[in-house]
Amino acid sequence: MSQFVYLYRMTDAARQEAMGTPERAQQNMQRWMAWMTDLDKKGHLKDRGQPLERSGKVVRGQQKTVTDGPFTEAKDLVGGFTLIEARDIDQAVDLSRGCPILEGGGSVEVRPIMKMDM
Amino acid sequence: MELSEHLFRRESGRLVAALTRIFGVHNLALAEDVVQDAFCRALEVWKVRGIPDNPSAWLMTVAKRRALDIVRRERTAHTFAPELSRVLESEWTLAPAVEEAFAGSTIRDEQLRMMFSCCDPRLPEEVQVALVLNILCGFGASEIASAFLTSRAAMEKRISRGKKSLASSRRLFDLADAEFAPRLSAVARALYLLFNEGYHGASPEAAVRIELCQEAIRLTMLLLDSPQTATPETQALAALMHLHAAKLPARIDSAGELNPLLEQDRTRWDARLIADGLALLDRSAEGSVVSAYHVEAAIAAVHATAHSVEETNWDAIVNLYDRLMGIAPSPIVALNRAIAIGQRDGPEKGLESIHAIADRDRLRRYPFYPAAIAELELRQGNLAAAEQYFSAAATLARSGAERRFLERRVREVSEAHRHHVAPTMH
Questions:
Q1: Rounded to the nearest 10 degrees, what angle do helices B206-224 and B104-118 cross at?
Q2: Digit-coded pLDDT (tens) for B16-32
Q3: Which of A44, B101, B138, B233 has the fewest Cβ atoms nearer than 10 Å?
Q4: What is the domain count for chain A?
């Protein structure tokens, strides 16, 4: 088994739309819970991860310039991550297909965690 | 742990009411943003940690914290609720004031004040109903638009027009206001319209219609929760809604098809709602005023307690319609009275009463006007006339369910016409 990180990306507009009414927000939430529970039951959920605030700071360059978020150059922001266990990248990608963020126009970035036992 | 159905939608109305107490009604949009933010936060946190034991309390805590932050950060630049301006200025009184705004009885009263503010008689009734659905019931413009078969853009316009007027009022309606009694009537009227939209409305989805009826009942029960608004008239309105809602499972089937009262499978009526409705009707008799809601509830009670069409006390129903004509005359009431006369005295008398309706030209776009004539003609054996009137009714149908129902009647009658036998009476 290998480990992968799912990075959840979404634009602000898509997020607004997905959470647009209380009823839609609740349905969205229930879809997330169902998907996570399913991953967990099948033994793929290594760590549920952490949600990230959508604001923050960026420190850049030798000048160490600090700028405020929201990060205008990155249209879809990483909203959180989850740690997954899967056979290989294909399975990890397959498992991500059920993620509700895809219904709302967001994306899941699937990244293998580098193996360090060389 | 599972979330109860529509929890976010219900909490939305409660939280917006509490936050508006702090921010002031001119900052309604800010209150709505805070609630939306709480839902986003819930999504992020709950999917990692699971749903908390008390989701409502969790959402409330997030909203409270956010309200405190906002007031602390912006109280010098912004004015919040004028009633609380002094209290919000000081750190000593700010936290208790916010705490108090979210106390159960305050949330109830603030929801009532919000409801009274939405039902401002200066706003057209359809705007009042849209505001109630949006602010107090947590429906989005798109959801209300689909229930009312209008466009999302048109509904957004209707809601924003209402909100502009609300915001300009500076403060929510005060229940101690001299205008309390007429405003309570306007609230009752808006809730009655909301219920009717669910009961008779255009939405093809049974679930949507039932939800509108449930919301109307929930808000009416909120009125009954407070002594000041729990008048006999409100009790009668609640009774009326319960007695009608009891029939919903038989009235609209899962496919959204319509079954008229005389054809319904009465074993599918909700006995619990009928019992609650009858108890409410009993309590509504305490006052000296007999409102239209009292009489309509009494009519619904006669139907609800009859085991079949034949066992229905049509004489009592005709008498109640006579009373209703005295209190709130309308061509539709007159039509229903004529139908009851048809049941009591036979189709010929029923037709006579229909043709005697004074302002019946106002019914010319109402599909159940020709449909009622058709039913009575049918019972008299005039198949050709029945077919013609049912066809006319079908062209006036206002929703798919109405059209399918009336077209079915046309087919049944024309089939029978061809075979020269009258179909079973409905």
A1: 110
A2: 999 999 999 999 999 99
A3: A44
A4: 1
Would the CB atoms of A29 and B42 count as touching at under 8 Å? Answer: yes
Q: Which two tokens stand for residue B210?
A: 């039932």
Q: Tell me, what DSSP letter sits at residue A101?
A: G
The answer to whether residue A61 sits within a structural domain is yes
Comparing CA positions, the residue from A10, A27, A41, A45 lying closest to residue B43 is A27
Whether A86 is covered by a domain: the verdict is yes
Does residue A117 sit within a domain? no
> A29 is in which domain, residue-wise?
2-112
CATH of the domain at A49: 3.30.70.1060
The shortest CB-CB distance from A29 to any of B36, B43, B140 is to B43
Angle at A16 between CA B32 and CA A9, to 5 degrees: 140
Residue of A8, A19, A29, A40 to mutate when probing chain B, most B C-beta within 10 A: A29
Distance (Å) from the C-alpha of residue A81 to the closest C-alpha of chain B? 10
User: Residue A58: inside a domain, yes or no?
Assistant: yes
Mean pLDDT, chain A, rounded, equals 88
Record: contact B138-A49, CB cut-off 8 A: no
pLDDT tens-digit map of B388-411: 999 999 999 988 888 999 999 999
Using an 8 Å Cβ cutoff, are B10 and B133 in contact? no
Question: Does B3 contact chain A (CB < 8 Å)?
Answer: yes
In chain B, domain spans: 1-102, 309-360, 364-426
